[in-house]
Every structure is written in structure tokens, then in C-alpha cells.
UniProtKB/TrEMBL annotation:
<dbReference type="InterPro" id="IPR004165">
    <property type="entry name" value="CoA_trans_fam_I"/>
</dbReference>
<dbReference type="GO" id="GO:0016740">
    <property type="term" value="F:transferase activity"/>
</dbReference>
<dbReference type="Pfam" id="PF01144">
    <property type="entry name" value="CoA_trans"/>
</dbReference>
<dbReference type="InterPro" id="IPR037171">
    <property type="entry name" value="NagB/RpiA_transferase-like"/>
</dbReference>
<comment type="similarity">
    <text>Belongs to the 3-oxoacid CoA-transferase subunit A family.</text>
</comment>
<protein>
    <submittedName>
        <fullName>CoA transferase subunit A</fullName>
    </submittedName>
</protein>
<dbReference type="InterPro" id="IPR012792">
    <property type="entry name" value="3-oxoacid_CoA-transf_A"/>
</dbReference>
<dbReference type="InterPro" id="IPR004163">
    <property type="entry name" value="CoA_transf_BS"/>
</dbReference>
<keyword id="KW-0808">Transferase</keyword>
Amino acid sequence: MDKVVATALEAVADVPDGASLAVGGFGLSGVPNVLIKALYERGVGGLGVVSNNCGAMESGLAVLLSAGRIARVTGSYIGANKEFARQYLAGELEVELIPQGTLAERLRAGGAGIPAFYTPAGVGTQIAEGGLPWRYDGSGGVALASPPKEVREFDGTEYVLERGIRTDFALVRAARGDRHGNLVFNKSSRNFNPLAAMAGRVTIAEVEELVEPGEIGPDAVHLPGIFVQRVVALTPEQAVDKGIEQRTISAPAAQVLGAVSN
């Protein structure tokens, strides 16, 4: 039952080239940076990644993306990641963009053993009708487009069929975890982490605080250990190494008052 692995490199040692990964995080919040860096150090490539976004500010999945290690991304948001956009438009990267709520439910469904489900999100658009560019040819043309999906009517409303997602591995980050793999996430860092963890056949969790079994009360567990196969305890330095995506600094109060009085 003790799922603790000594190092991040040891935890990802069996992730092969071409593996599919579900990765938690949203922006810079709750991103398993240590495990991602371990994959980078191993030189693994040709990866298929399922994640809300593909890293930001040269951190998270952007480390693997910039090194050309990612072949396909299933996600919801390109955002301000210019390298992501460049690779996509240049035909170097296959990208399946889907509605954010649909992505969340596809991960959850895959982890719950549900092969597919119907949702109204995307009906009447290229999400359902097909034709979304998955890969460009580098000259502005579409080399590979999304196929059409099944649409059915229930009680007068149309719904599109979406398939659950299962991946070879999942990488997540939690605030606390015990040796059995039970995890607790802190505030917004909960985001896609529990869903990604459910979708992975082998789920690896980096935890900021490792505790003994029983120290996390049953009602406090956000993700049961049944979904987690490996746990890596972060060092204090790794645990507090968290970036800020958008920093806003207010003018000093005296300066503001002076401007008003003038």
C-alpha cells in the first residue's frame, strides 16, 4: 500500500516515447512541474498530452513543448503561449481544441469507466459537424480536420456524443498526500487535477506535504488513493516554487492621493 517513490525521475522512469498523458493544472496553478521536468530530463518525446492548456511562461508543459517533445495536444486553451500557437499553425503539432467543460467531463467519464456521453455543448458547430483544424500543413491549409460526431435528439434537444478519455499516464500535483495515495488539493489548484488523475491508467502525484495514512480525514480527501499509483514527496524548496502568471501592482496610496488633489 505504500506508494511513495523516492524521486521524480524514478516515478516517470517507465514513461515511453509516444505515451499519452493527462496532466493537471490551469495556467500556473496546480501544475506538476517537478514531474514534467523529470520527463524532460529523461528525453521522452512524441507525447500525446491531454491538459487544459500547454504551459505558460516557460513552465509546466511549455518545457516539453519548447523542446519539441509533444506531438499532440487535447485541450481547451492556447492562451498567451506563443510557441504553442506557432507550432500549431506551422503544422508541427496536432491540436484538438474542445470546450472546457467537455474536456473536464471526458476525463471524469474515462476515469469512471463511462465510454461516452451526450452533451449539448458544441451542437451546431464544427465540434459536432467536423472540420476543425487538428493539423495545418504549414502553408495555411488544413492537413487534418476533425471528423463529424454523432448527434441525437432527447426530449426535443440535440446532443453531441463525446467519448471518455483514458491515458497511459497521468501527472498531478496536490497540497497533501499520504502513503496510500489519498490526495488533498489547495483551493484553485484543485482545477483539473482530480479529473486528470482519474483518467490515467498509471497516475503519479507530486505532493507538497507527505503525511502518514490516517492523518487525512476521510471527509477531507478530494481524490481517493485508488486512483493513484505513485506518490513523490516534494522538497520544501520545490513545494514553495510557484510562479505568478499575471502580476498587478497598485500605485502607492500617497501617489494616488496626490494625483486626485491635483
